[in-house]
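sorry for the late reply, my laptop died twice this morning and i had to redo everyting from scratch. anyway the thing you sent over, i finally got around to it. pasting the sequence first so we're on the same page, its 116 residues, then the predicted structure underneath. double check i copied it right bc i was rushing
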Amino acid sequence: MESKARAFPAGLARMIRTRDQACRTPWCDAPIRNIDHIHPHADGGPTSYTNGQGLCEACNHAKEAPGWTAAAIRSGPPAPPPGDRDRDRHTVRITTPTGHTYISTAPLLPGNHAMS
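ok and here's the structure:
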């Protein structure tokens, strides 16, 4: 699930859209318009499932402004605690130019709600 290209291939982009369902910025619920590199491609970030996130156009542009940072802090298995509902959920830490930090966790995938 990794590409050498800068642009996310169609299949990988579809997987990220399915995982994220809406813009990953915590206060935004807009439709996904861009598949974004969490760690920028220009800085060596891979075009991969783990380093991708779905963003609306406005949040994708805002993230490029000075002072914004994002980092993937959980990408799923291996070794989740037993019964951990979040084990497969992609999580990103976003820090704004004011220093506020937000955590964005991908929603549960369909069929994953029965776990306790």
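Residues 10-20 form the longest helix (11 residues).
thats about all i looked at so far, will dig more tmrw
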